[in-house]
Amino acid sequence: MMDMVSSTSSAWAESSSGSADLVLVTRPPAFGLPTACPACLPAYLYLRLAGARFDVHVTAVEPDSEDLPSVEYGENVGFASENGGVVEFLREEKIVDLDAGLNERERAELETCKAMMQSWVADASAYEVWMRDNSRQCKTVYFSELPWGLVQALDWKQRLAVMQRLEITPENTMTRTEELYKKASNAYSALSILLSDQKYFFNDRPTSLDALVLGHLLFHLRVPLEVSTLKEAILKYQNLVDYAEHWSKYLLGEEGNSIDSSFRPKTPHSSHASPPRQGPKERDNPEKERREKDIFFKKRAKYFVIAQVTAVLMYVVFAGYGVDDDGEDDGGDDDD
Amino acid sequence: MESSGDSVDLVLVTRPAGFGMPTVCPACLPVYLYLRLAAVSFREQVSAVEPDSVDLPCVEYGENVGFSSENGGVIEFLRKEKIADLDADLSDSEKAELETCKAMMESWVADASAFEVWTRDNDRQCKVVYFSELPWGLVQALDWKQRLAVMQRLGITPENTVARSEELFRKASNAYSALSVLLSDRKFFFNNRPTSLDALVLGHLIFHLRVPFEISTLKGEILKYQNLVDYAESWGKQLLDKQAILANPAFRPKAPPSPPLRPTKLGSNEREEPAKKARSESDILLKKRAKYFLIAQFLAVLMYIFIAGYEVDDEDLDVDDD
């Protein structure tokens, strides 16, 4: 595996004229998608639509992180949680900007559509992914390489956070979910009309909106959720389905992963990363790998500590029960 | 009402007036403007006893009531009851654009607005908007509770306040920029006639331009777009200001402080409806007042237990066992 890592980076570095690698860090692949994470997939598609060359770095140890997807470009890193996310980072670093050619009016329309994707559509999607019925697929998306105990704890914590954010309580679940799905449905209807029979949303060239919409459509069409209301809603709009299917073949390839040699996902499993085969030009890589290692270690440490604390707490709770029983024995009341 | 052929009133229930506006609540104002833009005659009823309710604004039409918390809100209710539908004539693609703009207003703009209204620095104006006719103790409790709920919904913690608020204001700014481009120099957003989007946008702009917040970042942003300011000022004068209102006899705001209402001047076939409606209004009013009375009582009891409990603990510790 280490050989694969080093050979990938060396092959990439030799063939490109720039000295900075572009690395997209995503959650693991699944269900035939290069990354099954609904936040990472649009970033991946954006880079593919832009024809940019990049490596994909898979990380499984940040299941509840808002920082993913992230992009590393030389020394700089752009996180999803920072203002504007990965797409804005790519624009600021002048790596890629699919929206540059839009006129003012198109840009305004793009903003409104983006807002709709990030609110109405994203909320319904989050609800569906985190519904209890879909927990099996949800775990595959978010927790696929973690130990069982941690998965249960994080899954519960994350679900609670999502339902809280969506303001869903046991009492209002039905009305709230109806509302969420209705808004998503309105969004699909609007997108279907705006796309009509075009290849892209704007002006015959791809924009960030295409990446956003395709990411969402492909996720819900491909991930086999137990309850997939959104998929059924999408299927009502034939042009959206055709759009998604057409681009999935082109951007994801028939096998789902390898289209051209510049893309080969690599997973940093082991902790020692000193690839012996590197040439003089790539001395930066050990530094980057050391940094990666650091981040990796910190994350593993964090989860190890969480697990330990949970174990201690559980012990305290159960040991405590025994002590209470002893204390309740009356030492004999003196009646005076 | 006597002049209209219909025997059914349309009543809009909103939070109280303030700062020169017939209703100063940012959720009620767009609905008020929608009805004015649609030139539908309606009565306005002010309700001050539902400060934390998501049901306001609501509209009563005969026996039916449309709440803002129900799917699509008041505007959808007005469409279903065939009272008013400003969006009826839009083409498919205009309707699609309207939906995307509406989503943007309801997410990016509404979130930044809520943050600004509920920022601690602005709590004086916030109390005028939401709690203007309640007793002091209740105001404090509900204000605290509501602020907590809003900040939780927006995902704001003491640690991330700066970053999160920057993000909220940035999105609002992008929204204003988009709205400014889409409106350009026209009178309405679509096709030279008012739509629900105009009501939504005007409601937001006028609110932030007129309410004198201590910290008004959004107002500062809005002022960067002259066409949005002109749009808001022009329609604000036409739809909200006193002269326009007095000229229209159909509109007369009234505040129901106590039950029951018995309008004696109505004709015979209308005597049932106002009495029935008045009775249900007074019922709702009583229930709400009762609810808040109980909350206040409960809080008082809790506080007593808590404080009384402290004294008891001290006494126990003083007892020595030999």
Automatic annotation (TrEMBL), chain A:
GO biological process: protein targeting to mitochondrion
Region (Disordered): 261-291
A Pfam family that the UniProt record links to this protein: GST_C_6
UniProt GO cellular component terms: SAM complex
Compositionally biased spans, kind Basic and acidic residues: 279-291
Domain Thioredoxin-like fold: 38-133
Sorted UniProt keywords: Membrane, Transmembrane, Transmembrane helix
Span of domain Metaxin glutathione S-transferase: 184-246
Membrane spanning stretches: 303-323
Protein name: Metaxin
Organism placement in taxonomy: Eukaryota, Viridiplantae, Streptophyta, Embryophyta, Bryophyta
Automatic annotation (TrEMBL), chain B:
Listed transmembrane segments: 17-35, 292-310
Highest taxon, organism lineage: Eukaryota
Pfam families assigned: GST_C_6, GST_N_4
Domain spans labelled Thioredoxin-like fold: 26-121
A GO cellular-component term linked to this record: SAM complex
Domain Metaxin glutathione S-transferase: 172-233
An example Gene Ontology biological process: protein targeting to mitochondrion
Region (Disordered): 250-278
Keywords: Membrane, Transmembrane, Transmembrane helix
Alphabetical list of SUPFAM superfamilies matching this protein: GST C-terminal domain-like
Ranges of Basic and acidic residues composition bias in the record: 268-278
Xref: CDD domains: GST_C_Metaxin
Identification of the protein by name: Metaxin
Species, as recorded: Physcomitrium patens (Spreading-leaved earth moss)
Lineage: Eukaryota, Viridiplantae, Streptophyta, Embryophyta, Bryophyta
Gene: LOC112280889
